[in-house]
Write a structure and sequence with these properties.
The protein is α+β, with helices and mostly antiparallel strands. It has 2 domains: 117 residues, no CATH class; 28 residues, no CATH class. It has a 4-stranded mixed sheet, covered by helices on one side. A hairpin with a 4-residue loop joins strand 3 and strand 4. Helix 2 packs across helix 3. The longest helix is centred in the middle third of the chain and has 20 residues.
């Protein structure tokens, strides 16, 4: 059986993380000082709620684009999962202070990568052995409505309290 080529992956323009919308932008490495100064495929800006991904299709900009063109969609997915993990850690309140320290656990790139890579495997095990929690959909909708109301009343936008 021949190798099946993966369907093109469309990078989402927005990703909602714990009620906070992050804008996803693809930038040329040369147009972004962080991408050009650091050896990374992307980064998350917690303050302006952006996830920036290097343009993996630009062969002049991205060093792996021409060497491994068939892997770019997997690289987009991997990078987005990694950056979403960073944003999740920040938005749930665990990275508020520690993200300023590059040696802290919440800024630890191998740990964030491990979470981003292993989470689907953990989910599969939880699902296989019926370890997922049952959640009543009305509770989620009720919490979201209540959360929005608390935020309108001047409470913390991230936590709603």
């Amino acid at each position: 059986m021949g190798k099946i080529k993966e369907k093109e992956f469309e990078v989402p323009k927005k990703i909602n993380i714990l009620g906070i919308d992050y804008t996803v932008k693809i930038k040329k490495v040369s147009d972004d000082f962080i991408l050009s100064d650091h050896p990374c495929n992307g980064y998350t800006d917690f303050y302006i709620k952006n996830i920036i991904i290097a343009d993996l299709t630009d062969q002049n900009e991205f060093k792996y684009a021409s060497r491994y063109p068939d892997t770019r969609y997997e690289r987009y997915k991997h990078t987005l999962r990694h950056e979403v993990t960073h944003a999740f850690i920040y938005e749930c309140g665990l990275g508020n202070q520690s993200h300023l320290d590059p040696t802290s656990w919440s800024s630890n790139e191998p740990l964030v990568d491990w979470i981003a890579i292993q989470m689907p495997k953990l989910y599969d095990i939880w699902k296989k052995y019926n370890l997922l929690m049952e959640t009543d959909e009305t509770d989620i909708v009720g919490w979201e409505n209540n959360h929005e109301e608390r935020c309108k009343n001047g409470k913390n936008k991230r936590t709603g309290y």
